[in-house]
């Protein structure tokens, strides 16, 4: 059931992304997706392996959902959030968007606990409080630092 839900979430996010008004070109979107995916994998590895704040269950379904969450679901969600962040003009809208991204991370963790994918041992609320701004800032920094290069495009010789 957890794998089906993960596939539905991925399908829904791809359709939402296609219909969003875009302020980024596809190269920038791919770069943001890769940067948030790498940061998400590093953060999840630190949480599970080094700090032991979360322990994954040793089931094949659990490993599949963890891989989908680390590589696709969370980076796609933050790609959508960063696109919306670029389109929203007001400070209140941007703050609400940051709070919504916090809610999304908390929701993903609750789903992982509900479907017996991950068991959070310590610092239950520290994980989303660190995870959300980390991914959000990673996407923004990657976009602002590399946007001039990505706007020009890359020429192959």
Polypeptide structure, described:
- The chain is mostly helical and 157 residues long.
- 78% of the residues lie in helices and 4% in strands.
- The chain contains five helices and two strands.
- It has helices spanning 2-19, 26-51, 60-87, 91-114, 126-152; strands spanning 54-56, 118-120.
- A two-stranded antiparallel ribbon has the order 1-2.
- Helix 2 packs antiparallel against helix 5 and helix 4 (91-114) packs across helix 5 (126-152).
- The mean pLDDT is 87.
Topology:
Layout lengths: L1 H18 L6 H26 L2 E3 L3 H28 L3 H24 L3 E3 L5 H27 L5
Antiparallel strand pairs: 1-2
Quick gist of this model?
The chain is 78% helix and 4% strand. The protein contains 5 helices and 2 strands; from the N terminus they run ααβααβα.
**What fraction of residues sit in β-strands?**
under 5%
Major beta sheet summary:
2 strands, antiparallel
Distance between the termini: 48 Å
Gross geometry: globular
Major β-sheet strand ordering? 1-2
What fraction, in percent, of the residue positions are helical?
over 70%
If you compute it from the alpha carbons, what radius of gyration comes out, rounded to the nearest whole angstrom? 16 Å
Question: Would you tell me the structural class of the helices and strands?
Answer: mainly alpha
SSE series: HHEHHEH
Low-confidence stretches: none
- Average of per-residue pLDDT values: 87
């Amino acid at each position: 059931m957890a794998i089906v839900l993960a596939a539905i979430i991925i399908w829904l996010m791809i359709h939402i992304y296609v219909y969003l008004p875009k302020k980024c070109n596809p190269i920038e979107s791919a770069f943001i997706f890769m940067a948030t995916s790498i940061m998400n994998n590093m953060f999840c590895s630190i949480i599970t392996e080094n700090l032991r704040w979360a322990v994954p269950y040793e089931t094949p379904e659990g490993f599949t959902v963890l891989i989908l969450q680390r590589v696709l679901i969370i980076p796609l969600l933050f790609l959508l959030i960063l696109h919306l962040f670029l389109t929203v003009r007001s400070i209140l809208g941007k703050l609400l968007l940051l709070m919504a991204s916090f809610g999304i991370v908390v929701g993903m963790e609750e789903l992982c606990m509900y479907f017996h994918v991950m068991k959070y041992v310590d610092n239950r609320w520290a994980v989303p409080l660190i995870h959300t701004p980390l991914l959000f800032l990673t996407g923004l920094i990657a976009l602002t630092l590399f946007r001039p290069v990505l706007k020009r495009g890359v020429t192959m010789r």
